UniProtKB/TrEMBL annotation:
Record's subcellular location: Cytoplasm
UniProt enzyme class: ligase
Transmembrane portions of the chain: none
Protein name: Tryptophan--tRNA ligase
Underlying gene: trpS
Protein origin, superkingdom: Bacteria
Cited NCBIfam families: trpS (TIGR00233)
Record: residues binding L-tryptophan: D140
Annotated ATP binding sites: T11, T12, T13, G19, N20, G152, K153, D154, I191, K200, M201, S202, K203, S204
Amino acid sequence: MNKKRMLSGITTTGKMTLGNYIGAMKNFVALQDEFEMYVFVANLHGITTPIDKDILRKNIKEMVTLYFACGMDPKKSTIFLQSDVLEHTQLGWILTCNTTIGELQRMTQFKDKSTKVKSENGTEFIPTGLLTYPALMAADILLYDAEFVPVGKDQKQHIELTRNIAERMNNKFGEMFTIPGDYTPKVGSKIMDLQDPTKKMSKSGANPKGFIALLDDINEVKKKIKSAVTDSENIIKYDVENKPGVSNLLTIYSALKNISIEEAEKFFKNKDYGILKDEVSNVVVNLLEKIQLKFKELFNSDLVDSWLEQGAEKARKLASKKLTKVKNLTGLNYKRK
Ligand code: AMP
Ligand code: TRP
């Protein structure tokens, strides 16, 4: 039986966080047997907000290595660097021309990020790419006829737009794209900031104590979890509205233990916040130690580069076929119908 195809990516705007791991990476790894996985490092998306070139280089190198250190298997999945497959930007342009400014301006991420760029840099310099980014993301997905896109909650709106663009193109020019569905994890689709648990844990979070990066020093990680914001009730219960900090710790615990929130609540019944933090710390540290060990092994070897090359080659085969079809149907390729 043919496996269904899944595709996803992570942007290189910063360090890979525990949020990225739980919301995205962990699922890519778990789904590699069941699905035909295409995952890429979204470096073209990584320049939609201003970024220093040396930092970008470092982010990309760390992220590509982390994909494998987290358990992506080059024998099972196709793993590549977005800019290595030129078709992404060509299809991205075609889709940009079939997307309206209104649609793009409605994207929550655009609104958030453009406000942030303004307030951080005190400038009106909002890169156009920040606005048009969802059209490139649509191209990433539609090039491969992905049936599912595993992402965290914050990306659902972009997948919805991708579906709209795909349907529009199919109706206007003839059947060319598979309509993708999203695939968010049951537990952990939105891991929150440890210091402000009403905000998403983010790579670019202002307070470094609020997020855990997969390559953080282990002692720092322990400290961060110890100082995570909770409340004064000392009752361990999942209640996002009234107990966002405790709920977030429960979520991290459940996701990494692969149990339901209810099971985690049962485990922590009558225990105090000290124990909750110790247990969360143990599972997180356990995970990070494993990842960091593998990361060190891979970082200075040539293996990662050769896996990426092999991945790009495989990705290009599908991508170029799809792009040719799109060019034929849209009239860009004037010799073919
Ligand atoms: P980004 O870092 O924005 O490129 O996100 C890469 C993937 O990680 C996407 O699927 C996001 O939805 C997911 N993700 C990012 N931050 C979180 C978070 N705090 N909790 C859960 N998933 C996340
Ligand atoms: N935009 C995604 C994010 O910031 C990353 C991404 C880029 C992506 N292209 C994609 C995710 C295609 C899934 C599919 O989280």
